[in-house]
Amino acid sequence: MEDINTKSVRYPVTTDQKLEKLALKLGRPKKLVVIQMVDYFYRSKKDPLDLSDELLKKELAGGNSRIIGFVKRQESDFLLPIFTASGVLTTIAKQHTIYFQQISDYLLEEAKKTAQLSLRMGVMKKGIVATQTRIEEKVLLKSRFKKILEYYINQRESLGWPVSNIKKEDLQAHVKQSLENL
Questions:
Q1: What is the CA angle 79-85-89, rounded to 5?
Q2: Which of 3, 1, 9, 2 is nearest to 30 (CA)?
Q3: How far, rounded to the nearest angstrom, does the alpha carbon of residue 49 sit from its chain's CA centroid?
Q4: What is the pLDDT of residue 163?
Q5: What are the residue ranges of helices labelled H in the chain?
Q6: What is the pLDDT of residue 144?
Q7: This model's pTM is above 0.85
């Protein structure tokens, strides 16, 4: 089996001490830490001399400007039309509110009129019922009086008062007509 670790790097003791502390802090061997650092710089394409990380700052600034541009584009494409439309909708809603208030007032007025009309109809119904009762009582009274009158006429005929038939018939017709006029 061939050893893949054939290369070596020489560095000062102070760097070795820093590497030792870093390896202890990370809990890995120094060799693994060195391999991971090389992989990190290779993949991220960062320059280890660039301590303030100018490339990262530029990339973040570019990302921030892209995000800000995206937000501004969304704002102009979506938010401004929505705000404009919501303003129009608010105006329409206010007009509808006024219209609905007028309808509500009208319906309240009509409800009052309907209640008054219902009350008047109730009074009229009571009056009609009272009139109907009186008419029925009048018809009953006429019927009873007619029976009494006929009984009187029959009894008078049976007694045989000396009066002419024409006068009797006139008297009967007059009394029956007076009874109907009641």
A1: 135
A2: 9
A3: 66
A4: 63
A5: 13-26, 30-44, 54-74, 80-159, 165-181
A6: 84
A7: no
Sign of the Cα torsion 98, 101, 107, 109 reads negative
The pLDDT score that the predictor gives to residue 36 is 92
Across residues 58-65, what is the average pLDDT? 79
Question: What is 130-151 written as a DSSP string?
Answer: HHHHHHHHHHHHHHHHHHHHHH
Q: How far is CA 134 from CA 103, 146, 181, in A?
A: 45, 18, 15
Burial class for 129, CB neighbours closer than 10 Å (0-12, 13-18, 19+) = exposed
- Residue range 138-156: average pLDDT? 81
Task: Yes or no: say if 146 and 180 are a contact pair by the CB < 8 Å rule.
Answer: no
| Burial zone of 178 (CB within 10 Å; 0-12 exposed, 13-18 middle, 19+ buried) | exposed
Q: Is the model more confident about 14 or about 53? A: 14
Q: For residues 96 and 104, give the distance between their C-alpha atoms in angstroms, rounded to a whole number.
A: 12
